[in-house]
Amino acid sequence: MIDQLSGLWAASFDDSRETIDAFFATAYSPNRCRYLTREGRLAAALYWLDAEFQGQKLAYVYAVATHPDFRGQGLCRKLMAQTHAHLAQSGYAAALLSPAGEGLGQMYAAMGYRDCCFRRELTCGWEEPAALRPVDAGEFARLRRQYLPADGVIQEGAHLAYLSTYAKFYAGTDFLLAAVRQEDTLLGLELLGNPAAAAGVVGALGCAQGRFRMPGGDIPVGMILPLVPDAPIPGYLGFPLD
Q1: pLDDT tier, 93 (very low <50, low <70, confident <90, very high otherwise)
Q2: Which of 10, 82, 126, 149 is at a distance of 20 to 30 A from 228, taking alpha carbons?
Q3: Which pLDDT tens digit goes with each residue over 157-192?
Q4: What span, in angstroms and rounded, lies between the C-alpha atoms of 181 and 169?
């Protein structure tokens, strides 16, 4: 199925072949994928990655796709409803996702999802380099639990395996960072801890400027659909995997 699934992904999203291959090499599991066929063809598919909040298991739903030949037939809604039922039966407390744009946000809202996770962003130039060191995904996961705010979603395992194919992880004396360098700009996918370290991080990594994402603020990132009564509602999602 991977060839068919990756082909549907390529037909549905503007992602490079490297990005698609990286997902299937690091984060894909047939146990975390559902799909629909029509006319003997793969028509729609989605995936999820396991996450955790307050001891409850969440499903981060990702890359929901309908082939262009089968759009407008209600397949996305049907696939999502089937997936929600499966997740509830499998012990997940809620489904979580990050819509790519206002239109998709409205579509998911019609399915019962509501905004739950927000972030703030900081743009800065460089300053004298801050002390930092590279860390691997395992150490990053361990430190992230210490820095994550109380309302933050724990994203490890497949999340970090996929993220590590395009981002690097760093730790400082009072901060933790996942970042991607884009020419002379550093994109801080997540900065936890001391936000004042941002400009020094830019200097340490040899960039001219930086854009950092961090907890707090009012920029919507995630939407949630509770699958059980009294499901805990997180306030921060660090990695929407964009």
Answers
A1: very high
A2: 149
A3: 999 999 999 999 999 999 999 999 999 999 999 999
A4: 12
Collapsing DSSP to helix, strand or coil, 60 comes out as strand
- Among 60, 67, 68, 72, which residue's Cα sits nearest to residue 99? 60
pTM for the model: 0.95
The strand pairing partners of 10, in sequence order, are none
Residues facing residue 130 across a β-bridge: none
AA identity, residue 31: N
Helix or strand (DSSP H, E) at 197: none
Summarize pLDDT for 187-242 with one digit per residue, the tens: 999 999 999 999 999 999 999 999 999 999 999 999 999 999 999 999 999 999 86
Tokens of 142: 């361990």
**For residues 3 and 158, what is the distance between their CA atoms, to the nearest angstrom?**
20
Residues 205, 186 contacting (CB under 8 angstroms): yes
SS3 label, residue 233? coil
Q: In the sheet that 175-182 helps form, which strands lie side by side, from edge to edge?
A: 33-38, 41-53, 56-66, 94-97, 219-226, 114-125, 209-215, 185-193, 175-182, 168-172, 132-135
